[in-house]
Input
Amino acid sequence: MVKYPTGSLTPYAKENNKPFSLQNKNKHKKAKSSVNFSDRGMTLEQQINESNKFYLIQDIAVVHKKPTPVQIVKVDYPKRSRAVIKEAYFRQASTTDYNGVYKGFYLDFEAKETRNKASFPLKNFHEHQIVHLDKCLKQKGICFTIIKFVSLNRYFVTPASFIINAWNQIDKSSVTLDEIIQNSYEIKSGYRPTLPYLDVVDKFILDRN
Amino acid sequence: MVKYPTGSLTPYAKENNKPFSLQNKNKHKKAKSSVNFSDRGMTLEQQINESNKFYLIQDIAVVHKKPTPVQIVKVDYPKRSRAVIKEAYFRQASTTDYNGVYKGFYLDFEAKETRNKASFPLKNFHEHQIVHLDKCLKQKGICFTIIKFVSLNRYFVTPASFIINAWNQIDKSSVTLDEIIQNSYEIKSGYRPTLPYLDVVDKFILDRN
Output
């Protein structure tokens, strides 16, 4: 690691400023080295984060990704340098990854990618995510998932109720692409925002009234 | 540290399962060793977390504290043991600590303690918290702060608009207790929930209609 004259790690740290994700570590690097035309080389998480930044700056909505929950055990406080966490563990999250507010509505959603071409395996969802979405639905939140079929380059905004129902069927281990098409709104990736998922939220709001 | 036969740190970890907070580390221990009558020995954060747990279990509201944002640099994967984060840094948060959904409304708030007896110093708020509360207000979220005067054992639910206005006055470094009384609803700590702040949210909802 490069140590800067002040002993600070800040310049090094800045390069790594994005939320850590084990699965996306390599994709991440790939995305950096390639020129970024719309969704090319971006993970779904990056596309959603970009979109949220756009929505935030334009005062359209306030949606943030929740930080990875970490249980911190040991912290060092080096002189003239910022605190370094020396021992910590990943904790189980109790919610979905994204929530926020849009036109007075509470939004809550989870983003999932699959390399499959004809179905989406339900094991991609963790039980706590299903339970959380169900709890938020009871409180009249607008709850959904954004599913990306990476190989097909197709994006679906699927109501949480459909996913919860599928999850609760004991004999069902996946939902087919056809089922997703029938129960979702498809969105196309674009430029500003990268992924215009609020267009679908507008439809959910209309359906509600 | 106790290493268990499997090499797992899980039993040790479980004791530390609560979100880490530098300031509250010692208070935390104190709270554990004392019998817990209502708010006695609990920090404001603990009181709110307890209340949120109650609201969640009773299907009254879904409100969670956001995890501390951490930028992870190095992770070890020991055999037969869970991943250990070996190097990480605290990141600047971009939101408040708490948000969630209640009866279709988006809630967003920050909790602050002071040992002062006659005023609340505005430097307790960080700029990003004020900016975030303002952004959420524009999206019609219900935004507020819960202020605890520790020495007085008094709790106030204060609309974010009041705090933002005070913060934006250049010559103002604190708000007096009187100002807080005039612009807030006072709540009393109790048993179930520990801090019934949703009673005030109900008033905010009524005021709105």
Notes: Chain B has one domain: 22-66+93-208. Residues 44-57 of chain B form the longest helix (14 residues). Chain B touches chain A through 50 residues (CB under 8 Å). The domain at 22-66+93-208 of chain B is CATH 3.40.1350.10 (Trna Endonuclease; Chain: A, domain 1).
